[in-house]
Design brief:
Number of helices: 13
Number of domains: 3
Radius of gyration: 21 Å
Helix content: 25-40%
Strand content: 15-25%
Oligomer: single chain
């Protein structure tokens, strides 16, 4: 069996975050010098908060910017909320299990859990020490990461990255069980613990020959989902759809939608789509994690996304929207780090 560290070394999608962010620092520093503000990016999405959403303070707050037509039913749970309040929320929203819970200030899929019963939900939430979102589970088997940026010179939005999230799947051979099939894939070895924790099948189940088993539908890279570059599908109909969405989100100019749909046609027609969340200035053009894209080409894509961010910041500054003051940003950073 191939060792996990060898798999990670040979496939850059598994490399640590600094491998992508460290090469960006000189560019961000130069942008800061030009703007005379090292936190210039905090004015890009003033509709989120004074920090532009840099600190992942509240997914719930951002969700409220999205039309209820396009987002799953959800509610916010705080550590001190009484159990009977959970019952009332679930009943009033007509939520059916399974459901999803995730930290309101989470990032990169951390803490996202699928819950199958009220007993399981109460047990999970009894341990929380921070705010959590309880969200309707969307069963669609297609999920896209759609990264959108405002173009100040053209007064419109453009899709700058499109990624299909391919949920972890195995194909039966008539003799191997789910556990063996998961371990037979390099991605299964890297994310084995996360995958089996979320498996919709018994690990002892033996699929028939050519039986396709989607092991789970959690669209996070850290849960074994593969990110597939779909930039060849970025055309006018998709741009028009994203313009419609973004123009309804006042004060937000840049970020990535994570959207579940039944088909790509539904996405471009905004039919039966559900926006799981919107990630602002800290969002990544996640097509860069498609290994076939190439590491250096991925870095270039990352650089280009920051160029868009810089242009929006400059534009908003010209409109009187200033970045957060250095002292306030440093105070916030200190509070987070200590």
């Amino acid at each position: 069996m191939k060792k996990v560290w060898i798999i990670k070394f040979r496939n850059y999608e598994y490399w640590p975050m600094w491998a992508f962010y460290l090469p960006l620092l000189p560019l961000i520093f130069v942008f800061g010098l030009i703007q005379r503000h090292f936190f210039f990016f905090t004015n890009v999405n003033p509709g989120i908060d004074a920090f532009g959403g840099f600190f992942f303070d509240s997914k719930h707050r951002i969700d409220q910017k999205i039309s209820s037509v396009y987002r799953p039913k959800s509610f916010l749970v705080r550590p001190f909320d009484a159990p009977e309040n959970l019952e009332a929320f679930i009943t009033n929203l007509a939520l059916n299990f399974p459901i999803i819970i995730k930290p309101d200030a989470g990032e990169r899929g951390k803490g996202v859990t699928k819950i199958f019963s009220k007993i399981e939900l109460k047990a999970a939430l009894s341990k929380i020490a921070t705010d959590y979102l309880v969200q309707e589970f969307i069963p669609h088997l297609l999920e896209y990461g759609v990264f959108v940026s405002y173009l100040p010179n053209e007064n419109k939005y453009k899709v700058i990255s499109l990624t299909e999230k391919q949920f972890f799947t195995v194909i039966g051979d008539g003799k191997s069980n789910i556990d063996e099939l998961v371990k037979s894939q390099t991605r299964g070895l890297v994310f084995y613990k996360q995958i089996i924790e979320r498996a919709l099948y018994s690990l002892n189940y033996v699929p028939k020959i050519d039986e396709v088993c989607v092991i789970h539908t959690m669209g996070n890279h850290c849960n074994g989902t593969e990110f597939i570059n779909k930039n060849e599908l970025k055309y006018d109909a998709l741009n028009n759809a994203m313009n419609q969405l973004m123009r309804g989100m006042t004060g937000i100019f840049y970020g990535r939608f994570d959207i579940k749909v039944a088909s790509f046609d539904d996405l471009i027609n905004l039919m039966d789509i559900k926006i799981l969340e919107f990630n602002g200035i800290t969002a990544e053009p996640i097509h860069i994690y498609d290994n076939s894209h190439g590491y250096f080409k991925s870095l270039l894509s990352f650089v280009n996304s920051w160029k868009y961010l810089y242009k929006i910041s400059k534009y908003n500054k010209s409109k009187g929207i200033a970045p957060i003051k250095h002292v306030e940003m440093l105070r916030k950073l200190r509070a987070r780090l200590l």
